[in-house]
Amino acid sequence: MADYYDLLGVPRNADEAEVKRAYRKLALKYHPDRNPGDAKSEAKFKEVNQAYEVLSDSGKRRLYDQYGEAGVSQGAGGAGGGSPFSGFGGGAGAGDVGDIFGDIFENFFQGGGQTGRRSKRTRRGHDLKYDIEVSLEEAYEGTRLPLKYERVESCSTCTGSGAKPGTGLKRCGTCGGSGRVQFSQGFFAMSQACSTCGGEGQTVETPCGSCQGSGRRRAVHKVTIRIPPGIYDGATLRIGGEGESGGAGGESGDLFVHVRLKPHPKFHREEDDLIYDARIAYPQAALGCKTTVPTIEGEGARIRIPAGTSDGSAFRVKGRGMPRLKGRGHGDLIVRVRLDVPKDTTPRQRELLEELAKTMGVSDSIGNGSEPHPEPTDKPSDESGPGLFKKFFGGE
Q1: Which residues 6+ apart lie within 8 Å of 324 measured at CB?
Q2: pTM of the full predicted structure?
Q3: Domains of the chain (ranges, CATH numbers)
């Protein structure tokens, strides 16, 4: 099944309202009543419902962000649980189309009997981002990391009310406690949230001295997060409720942790495989050999290099790579052969190499590589042109 965020067309840091809007739009588009007999639309409708059921539930969404579909496969049933359309008959998990638009007009058209109704608006806290680096070994094993960062939290002095301890709240004088103010737009009577009380219908008598009446203040927060085995470079973990506190009793935002992998001195990662360059001498490549290569878990692996192996040849060691983040098992260890050509040789080694060159018919070309290269110069040499002939033929 496709990624739930892709199915709804929302980013991974989308808030609850964005997820709900996207779901409603797609639910209308693929609703069975609007596409009778269309099997593809029906299947798409079920997928959208399943995605919304997970992403609308903070607990399920947290599991999905960390472990993928496997994390919610046990807890996420069919469509309907988290869906606002769960009253629809027939098991499709969607409701009457009219319900979709109910709250769209509620904010704009208020009847005369609703002017005294208090409409307290909660505000969700802001999401936060945090960058961390982990080693390849930590990504292999999985680990728990303590984080410390500054965020906006509910004020501990006034417990988030914004009022000085011992004082209380009073009715807003602008909206009369309704949280909304009326205004006219052409022929329509409309209303909007009161700017004085922020739609809460109440204001503080005496502001709290710690938070100046806001109900929130900045503080250092500590949390320990779990890095799952197999985490990849560039992954983002969503830690629900660890962002900034909401206003007026609203839910807290989330913490998004961006993971980067530190470069490793031995291994290079490609998806779930690990690449290791093994340097061997020419005789080992020509005659074949057995050698031990390191592995990420530290045990080492014994491999056989067949005779006649050329530089750049690769050998696969099954199951010795990284754990698969959204599946079972491990990737592989890919061993690439690199021929180690010595820069300095002993006289005996050179003798043997020259003898080998003769047997291979390449002795005439041996040795030229060791001759020093002349330094380039623009100045003419005394031993060039006619002067060179005089030196050798005695013309001086």
Answers
A1: 230, 272, 330, 331
A2: 0.55
A3: 1-70 (1.10.287.110), 123-164+212-263 (2.60.260.20), 169-204 (2.10.230.10), 267-348 (2.60.260.20)
